[in-house]
Amino acid sequence: MPDMTQTTISIRTAQDADAPAVIALWQAAGLTRPWNDPATDYALALAHPMARVLIADDRGRDGHSPVGTIMAGYDGHRGWFYYLGVAPTAQRQGIGRMLVRAAEAWLTSVGCPKAMLMVRSDNAAVTAFYTALGYEAQAVTTLGRRLDGR
Ligand SMILES: CC(C)(COP(=O)(O)OP(=O)(O)OC[C@H]1O[C@@H](n2cnc3c(N)ncnc32)[C@H](O)[C@@H]1OP(=O)(O)O)[C@@H](O)C(=O)NCCC(=O)NCCS
């Protein structure tokens, strides 16, 4: 697989104007779910001082189109990743790795000691991806409860 990460990919912090392109990318990468409105998720993250959405731009594509994203947030104890996705036509070229490393660097810069993420236990591909980057499965059950009445 050609490695284009050294030449045409750059990572930057997402801005409000990136919303349509980022949401389209989330949809193309299969990251959206019926119970989460992606526009609301995007706006909440951009408005929060301890969250970032990072974008991988491909300068080799028309209009520097985004080819990948990751959302990271620091809760004061751990850092969490969400919405990691690379455009289907740009996968397995090192872009996902670049995004995770950039998100780790941001978490480190704000004093966060550990990065965490949730992946469905039957998602072998994403588990293999994070394992390749040094992440280890943890014996926990994730519980959740909506606080917004939805
Ligand atoms: C997961 C994802 C972001 C990985 O991005 P990517 O740019 O393709 O990954 P990289 O090229 O940086 O891969 C780095 C390493 O991870 C491992 N890896 C990546 N994808 C893999 C796969 N499908 N199966 C097994 N290992 C994989 C490999 O070791 C790879 O190195 P190699 O290509 O030299 O063998 C991408 O597949 C994606 O967008 N998937 C759909 C969205 C998704 O499921 N996101 C996660 C939600 S929890």
Automatic annotation (TrEMBL):
InterPro entries: Acyl_CoA_acyltransferase (IPR016181), Bact_Acetyltransf (IPR050832), GNAT_dom (IPR000182)
Keyword Transmembrane helix listed: no
Top-level taxon: Bacteria
An example molecular function term from Gene Ontology annotations: acyltransferase activity, transferring groups other than amino-acyl groups
Record's keyword terms, sorted: Acyltransferase, Transferase
Domain N-acetyltransferase stretches: 9-150
Keyword presence, Nucleotide-binding: no
Gene3D superfamilies in the record: 3.40.630.30
NCBIfam families according to UniProt: PRK03624.1 (NF002959)
Listed name of the protein: Putative acetyltransferase
Source organism (scientific name): Novosphingobium nitrogenifigens DSM 19370
Species classification: Bacteria, Pseudomonadati, Pseudomonadota, Alphaproteobacteria, Sphingomonadales
